[in-house]
Structure to design on (353 residues):
């Protein structure tokens, strides 16, 4: 088979990854290639050449002065994104060598134009309902969808019936580590991921905390997180995969603190694969990933203060978890090989006569 993977066009599929979606696409492409399946990828320029996949290129948007001066001109980034996906779908419609198009983007056009392609299209739902994708799916009955968790499938249930294929992590790359004397938090530095809550939990519990991830929301970092940094609570930056693995595997526990309905919680699975137990706020699909013997979820309370207090109360039991048992839990529940096998089975179903 030859599979076309459509990713978000804002970030390349390359380490250090901008987020879980980019990481997922990279590992999926790599895993498919290792199974002898050819892969074509559409993503932002600069995707990892080591993947050895064909990259679907698009022409940059060229606007005349007249178009730019139109009083109804939307943000140029929105125009560029839409035209990029229009070019990709038009290009795919002319190709006979691709068997399945796997849409992992957050754009409506691959959904709206799915029926214009000769190939079957499957869209993985990586987020809660969005105002762009939801109407496109309503207008495209029969479009095949998958969801990264039962929680996400449930959120979209009135729009589409999605097959649940949980994300997974590379158990070789995320190997067992010895633990350490500090906590860790990793992910995009944005309000909905709420690393400031992790800082408050660590400070209240008397633990050191290392925070890692891209600064995706500078204002949030400056106003909410930076004031909480200290000698014991530090920001390590946006780390390369090997550096992040070392940090996570040498930590006593991982804090995951979403203030939105977390679709899956890839950082939790990565942590457990290292043997590092997880303390998580139970939002969205995260509660499906983080459960004993790999971690503990606490319910979000009415206020940040109550949530922090509940997390601090649970922290000792999390840190005390056996690291080998945590790793075994990740092996049984969060394997990348199992994820890729399920997608390959789905692709075969879609191309079956």
């Amino acid at each position: 088979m030859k599979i076309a993977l459509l990713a978000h066009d804002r970030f390349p599929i390359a380490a250090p990854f901008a987020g879980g979606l980019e990481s997922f696409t990279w590992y999926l492409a790599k895993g498919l290639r290792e199974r002898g399946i050819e892969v074509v990828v559409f993503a932002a320029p600069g995707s990892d050449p080591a993947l050895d996949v064909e990259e679907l290129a698009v022409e940059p948007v060229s606007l005349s002065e007249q178009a730019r001066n139109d009083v109804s001109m939307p943000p140029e980034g929105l125009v560029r994104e839409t035209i990029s996906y229009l070019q990709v779908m038009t290009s795919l419609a002319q190709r006979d060598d691709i068997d399945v198009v796997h849409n992992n983007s957050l754009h409506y056009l691959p959904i709206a134009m799915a029926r214009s392609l000769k190939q079957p299209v499957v869209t993985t739902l990586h987020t809660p309902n969005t105002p762009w994708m939801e109407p496109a799916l309503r207008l495209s009955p029969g479009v095949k969808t998958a969801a990264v968790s039962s929680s996400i499938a449930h959120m979209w249930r009135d729009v589409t019936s999605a097959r649940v294929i949980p994300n997974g992590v590379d158990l070789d790359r995320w190997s067992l580590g010895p633990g350490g004397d500090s906590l860790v938090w990793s992910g995009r530095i944005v309000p909905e991921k709420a690393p400031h809550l992790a800082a408050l939990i660590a400070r209240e519990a008397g633990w050191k905390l290392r925070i890692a991830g891209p600064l995706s929301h500078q204002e949030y970092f400056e106003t909410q997180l930076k004031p909480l940094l200290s000698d014991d609570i530090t920001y390590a930056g946006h780390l390369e995969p090997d550096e992040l693995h070392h940090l996570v595997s040498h930590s006593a526990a991982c804090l995951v603190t979403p203030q939105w309905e977390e679709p899956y919680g890839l950082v939790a699975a990565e942590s457990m694969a290292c043997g590092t137990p997880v303390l998580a706020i139970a939002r969205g699909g995260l509660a499906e990933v983080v459960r004993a013997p790999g971690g503990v979820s606490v319910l979000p309370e009415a206020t940040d203060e109550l949530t922090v207090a509940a997390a601090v109360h649970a922290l000792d039991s999390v840190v005390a978890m056996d690291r080998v048992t945590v790793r075994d839990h990740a092996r049984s529940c969060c394997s990348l090989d199992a994820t890729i096998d399920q997608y390959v089975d789905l692709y075969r179903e879609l191309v079956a006569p």
In short: The longest strand covers residues 2-6. The two ends are 14 Å apart (CA to CA).
